[in-house]
Design goal:
The complex is a heterodimer of chains A (426) and B (165). Chain A has 426 residues and is an alpha/beta fold. Chain A is built from 16 helices and nine strands. Chain A is globular, with a radius of gyration of 22 Å. In chain B, 45% of the residues lie in helices and 11% in strands. Classes of the chains: A alpha/beta (426), B alpha+beta (165).
Amino acid sequence: MSFEPFLLTPVPDHDKIDVYLKHGGYTALSKVLKERTPEEVTQEVINSGLRGRGGAGFPTGRKWSFIPKDTDRPIYLCVNADESEPGTFKDRELMLKHPHMLIEGAVITAYAIKCNRAFIYIRGEFATEAHQLERAIAEATEKGFVGKNILGSGFDLEITIYRGGGAYICGEETALMTSLEGGKGYPRLKPPFPAVSGLYLSPTIINNVETICNIPHIMNRGAEWFKSMGTEKSTGSKIFCVSGHVNKPGNYELPMGISLRELLYEYAGGIKNDRNLKVVIPGGSSVPILTADKVDVKMDFESLVEAGSMLGSAGVIVMDETTCIVHAAYVISRFYQHESCGQCSPCRQGTLWMYRILDRIEHGKGKMEDIDLLLDICNNIEGNTICPLGDASVPAVRSSIKYFRDEYEYHIKNKKCLVQLDQRFE
Amino acid sequence: MIDKSSKGLLSESSKEKIEGLICIFPDKQSIILPVLHVIYDQLGYLDSKAIKEAASITEIPDVYFEEAASFYTMFPLEPVGKYLIQVCHNISCTLMGAESLIDYIKEKLGIKPGGTTADGLFTLVTVECLGSCGTAPVMRINDTYYENLTKAKVDKILETLRNQA
């Protein structure tokens, strides 16, 4: 059976409301408001097995069900559009080409969690995407899909776009909320979890753009349809963002559980210049690397953990045999030391030390004991911070040493890379 | 204290935008980041005098704005060239030649990252992931993304901007 993408549907001009309506847009919303209670919507999403697409993979419907039933505070929805995980570029495409899918999903989600105020927190650099969403919200408001008394149901929802300021940390859900509340985006300790005490200390649900975009489809076609795709525990489709050394980089929406080999060779056109594959980072730079012998792994939450990595945000970064692993780890570590918010010392200091040590190895000044020193720093960051950024800085460094210790040693001994990255900018 | 003798930096339109933001959020403090965007959109950087003006309009102490300004790396804190060239040097872009791209622009404009050309047109900075890894290497100039870059494309982009200035 051939799979047809429903999130990245190839309909031209799908960002225009008339085109979206012509292709069944907002029918899920209209059906939900007429025929389903909020509890039934939540139950359908629980039944579908949908799990968060931002990286953590938490079951979406269950998250919604954590909103206290007896709360007297307003309930908020935050759509996490702060897409910043290196190697990930799916939400950008969804917002540019399918903004109404996101809006429709957000309205249904808000209805399910009984929320009248939603925020879309979008990374600051996405100016075009923010304007696109603003335009689409205006269109949807004019047609009565957003605003007061939506489609005569008595349900109100106001959606506000909130632009970030270029801080990776604000994609972490508690940092997103502190940023939205004004000021620095410092993560908070959990518990309390956002569903109980989140934005402005009110119950809050934070869901990724791709997660929300799935909602209208689940409501239209049902949980059973959604579960017919993917694996038992990783249901539905997933947008895989393929970047690096492939012939056709880009977003590929495919059923969960597709093999990495099929993704890279059937869809992404194989490795550039017919070179050999060296490593793949399958879930954004925060997850461990996979060596080429793992190319038959299935791309779903469980299989990737079994293979020693994670699905994360499905940012699939492909490196061929000309890639120096020390150089790659150095570039990745630079990112985490730049983005550490500075709140917890193991992360603030640890990411900086890792970067400095990798910098000296990369530039021919490393010492042999630096390799174990890096591992020691990894152990001292992991698990010792408020949020997962510290933990996220560890896997690239640790796994690259695990699989390519000889390359580190060569680099330190010979003061240069074992392999030289091909000149690709011409 | 606001120096009332000198003319403010914020335009009437920026002031209006800031005033319009005040009642949007459940908590007024939430306008800090949107206000920084208004200042950045007008001036291209966050001027501390403009921040003070904005703080006085919103009646939120300027220290909160200053604190946020120092945290969010997207906003320059000093004046920059008319065109702020932000080249991504994160992993996917590096794999696709970002380091050579940076060298190429450095040589072409005769400036290092952080520097501005003598004519005040171009400032070059390196940035972390821009979320456009499938079209690497990538740069952003002011608010516009330029993707799948080659030397010929960079030449053309910079020439077009120079002619527009």
